[in-house]
Amino acid sequence: MRLVVLGGGESGVGTAILGKEKGYDVFVSDFGKIKESYKEVLINKGIEWEDEKHTESLILNADVVMKSPGIPEKAPIVKKLVERGIPVISEIEFAAPFTKAITIGITGSNGKTTTTMLTYHLLQSAGLNVGLAGNIGKSFAEQVAEDKYDSYVLELSSFQLDGIINYKPHIAIITNISPDHLDRYDYKYENYIDSKFRITMNQTEEDYLIYDADDEAISEWLQKNKTRAKLIPFSLTKTFEEGAFIKNNTMEAIINQEEFKMETESIALEGKHNLKNAMAATSVAKLMQIRKATIRESLSNFQGVEHRLEKVLKIQNVQYINDSKATNVNATFFALDSMNTPTVWIVGGVDKGNDYNELMALVREKVKAIICLGVDNRKIIDAFGNVVDIMVEVNTMSDAVRMAQHISEKGDAVLLSPACASFDLFENYEDRGRQFKDAVHNL
């Protein structure tokens, strides 16, 4: 069996390692450059590879192709494979059959990283032998090759879900759905929604789907479509006989006739959206039969995720907050919603078809100045030019932070929450967040 791996990054190299171990004839092809560290791994494992090109004769003879999530379906080489009827799958689909471990799959437009990390923290603190993979950390396929975990918490993007055929998580979570990556879905929101719901398509009556019952797109899909999984909703406004909810400043989760309660103010993560993430993670912990005391302790000591509403420093009584992970409007909505002091907002980057109107009320209420940090800021200026008193354009992070210091006064906050992708000025959102933190430390 010939396995061709497109993309020589973390998921690609991991898949190649697992494929080689399982006896496949493996070839890795990357249209860009493969990092030196990954090349060394491939060479040491005796896996053939190429970079900065796709040699068709070495790719179109595949029995199966694993495509990295960053490569669009519209890429010419992918189109040719599909035309020939060669299965093009994701790393998760390739690796899942080689492990007996239970998987917990988490998807959503926002909150999936925090929910994934929190769920992993809960299970790990309870002493479960659990791995963390998907969009985060070390490749799932490589961890399956090492075979040392009984369960995995997987953060799954819509791109990874597009490449599944038979994969099913035992427990699936959909944190929420809002328009994102529409450039990859023919600008059709319904295609993107369907893509997220692939997480439950192979689930059976023995499996669970945990979902945000306050989310319009999720509720509509569930009304029109069927899943065989057992449904476990969570909500800030409704209560359930089975599910998680907030009542009288207390989070309650009732699952399999067992009740769990915890006062919301004891939960370490701040903000309404984080209560939702906590309800989702708690629901998993209850399904995995973790002790109540362990759940309480884990929820009260969880430190949060880097680049997600991360408090960096307070300088002259101004709080600097790094929310670089907010790459869409919905994520920035949560960030602005959680601000309770006048805010200098640093925003901008590569727009993925954003509608800034959703933020209008929050900007009017909370934002005193906007600093645009992008190559093309026209949409932001058109949207908010008449709403805030101060609007500035900069093109380096250090300029943005210095300008923010200049504009802010005691008691304000400076919030980096770009609502856009980072590729115009930075390598990725992590690079953007690190540059912000460095610039703040250098003030």
UniProtKB/TrEMBL annotation:
One of its GO terms (cellular component) is cytoplasm. Residues 106-284 form the Mur ligase central domain. One of its GO terms (molecular function) is ATP binding. SUPFAM superfamilies: MurCD N-terminal domain, MurD-like peptide ligases, catalytic domain, MurD-like peptide ligases, peptide-binding domain. Cell wall formation. Catalyzes the addition of glutamate to the nucleotide precursor UDP-N-acetylmuramoyl-L-alanine (UMA). HAMAP family: MurD. This is UDP-N-acetylmuramoylalanine--D-glutamate ligase. It comes from Flavobacterium sufflavum. The gene is murD.
